[in-house]
Amino acid sequence: MTTTLKPLPDAMPGSSSVREIGIIMNGVSGRMGYRQHLVRSILAIRDQGGIELSDGSRITVRPLLVGRSESKLAELAARHGIEDYTTDLDAALADPRWEIYADFLVTKARAAALRKAIAAGKTIYTEKPTADTAEEAFELANLAAAAGVKTGVVHDKLYLPGLQKLKRLIDSGFFGRILSVRGEFGYWVFEGDWQPAQRPSWNYRAEDGGGIIVDMYPHWNYVLENLFGGVKSVYTQASIHIADRWDEKGEHYTATAEDAAYGVFELEGGVVAQINSSWTVRVNRDELVEFHVDGTHGSAVVGLFGAKMQHRNATPKPVWNPDLADDHDYAADWAEVPTNEIFANGFRQQWEEFLASYVHGTDYPFDLMAGARGVQLAEAALRSSREGCKVVLDDSPLG
Hints:
Blueprint: E1 3-4, E2 18-26, H1 31-47, E3 51-52, E4 58-66, H2 70-80, E5 84-86, H3 89-94, E6 98-103, H4 107-119, E7 123-126, H5 134-147, E8 151-153, H6 161-172, E9 178-186, H7 212-227, E10 231-239, E11 244-246, E12 252-254, E13 260-267, E14 272-278, E15 289-295, E16 298-302, E17 307-311, E18 335-336, H8 346-360, H9 368-387, E19 391-392
Helix pairs in contact: 1-8, 4-5, 5-9, 7-9
């Protein structure tokens, strides 16, 4: 065990009005934890001198890196000018100087760490899935609520420029009554034999918490829930299309977790959503994820960044005739949704909102209970595929 900790000042040097918040960051050596949460969020906030809140006060952040490898932590700390790191999570949680616990561990290790953070009374901000099972995810949410612990779960897809444009269309009433949503997500992940795979091998092992359903359905749950309506039921066909894969050492293994999932979701209000998620699809669309939304008054197609729309007054009138080639340019019937604003990095934007909510003591909607609903949807989808049936989601699982 190694601990390198220095005293936290009450405020930034030369500024008595700035509050510095200590954040335990567990799992920052992983790709997502390092790139999005440490570098592009917390360090970006630190390096700009913090963030100004609505009441005119200012806060900044001080990260404490936590992990198993002392050498990796020391290297990261030196690279980014971070003074504090430790391999002792228990000691970090016991130290009152560190107010927030942030978790970016692999799913298998997350629930145990969250339990410790709840017991220590730390405010929690975590990646998803929040647990391996819906039962444990809801248990964690209820434990945090009973302990009065404020929690936040990453909902990064809601902050994508394309989905923020979509939200603007929804809020304006552009669609009229929304009828359906069709989502396409995915790309080809190489098997690992003749080209290295772009995703870690554990993603394809169910025993290690892998599978595209566990990975993506928690995302789809909060996207559907916050834009179109809560999920009432799900039917999913999960498939292991490619069983033979090769790991990071070039050794062959047999996939035990699905690499594709084809889902149909019934939403509140009668909206029907269909989302295909696949690591075995070659991309023929503008972006790696796209949502096509149809409503009585208009339609839109949005991706990570782009968004285009078609109002009912601009809708063509196709006539099906298989005997004649159709030379109509349907793509030309769509108009770009204007950007109208500068979109920040979504992970950073959510961090700033969570920090502001923490300081002001306001309710935060994307909490452990919201995260648990995502785990519940993934679990229901796996059951649906296993049993070949539609699964209705429980409205109030475990209290």
